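[step 3/7] fold_predict: job queued, chain A
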Amino acid sequence: MSTASEEAVKQLRILMEDVEDESLRESYRNIHQGYPTETLLRFLKARDYNVHKSHQMLLDCLQWRTQNEIDNILTKPIVPVELYRGIRDSQLVGLSGYSKEGLPVIAIGVGLSTYDKASVHYYIQSHIQMNEYRDRVVLPSASKKQGRPICTCLKVLDMSGLKLSALSQIKLMTAITTIDDLNYPEKTDTYYIVNVPYIFSACWKTIKPLLQERTKKKIQVLKGCGKDELLKVMDYESLPHFCRREGSGSGSGRHISNGTVDNCFSLDHSFHQELYNYVQQQALVKGSSAAPIRHGSVHVRFPEPDTEGTKIFDTLESEFQKLGNDHKA
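[step 4/7] structure written:
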């Protein structure tokens, strides 16, 4: 860390020590999980090391968390299990393993996610629960195993099956992206994009110039399924199922071999089983009761998209519409 960065962290730490509201302080502890320096550094990076803006961003994040009871969201399971299975089958996200440096590898099926099995609020709830489980359980466990702070992850984005119909999902994706940008900043070390169809390549040329330089440096668009490049940073066992062979295509989302589930998107995968059981257990502890758990979806206030995010999704929507018109012509 440079001298300037150290000074910025010091100033921001002093400002955070002045926070008197105990609910905000508790939420801050849930965020940093014993690594306050790394947390402050993330918010500083997100605001180009402007201490005032970083401080305001962190305070806004804490307010959002307390107003929406985010610190209790891991005590609110999505039930019944059939509903949750439907969400897992249509919001394709999972933990496939760890990089050689010990960072969690998060796989995301961008092209095949349909978001059509539940309301928007359930998908938002599920997304935030995975964020919180990652930050409160997965990353602390990885830090303990590695003997050093592990505060970020790698993401592998599968574009298989991406179609013009994805236009209908842009509002939800905007909400999810905005929640992450404003409340979980700088949690991803690198984005690897694989199985890229023409529609993505066409949009990428327009979107890339709109990204901040810091974001551009994190994104790598790989050839094919990306297996050869990804094996430089992770072992074969940690590769997402859609990266394990060339030509995996859209069918890779359902790949099963040797009777064991390799698909990290599935509720039957060990990661999702652990997450689901954890939330169920936390709900019982919170309620101090063995009675059946009944919850509706958690309604979380969506923050307004920031300038960069709004511009990107507006541009993406426009490009999808152009491609649609060209296809009709």
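[step 5/7] annotate
The chain has a mean pLDDT of 87.
The longest strand covers residues 188-194.
exit 0
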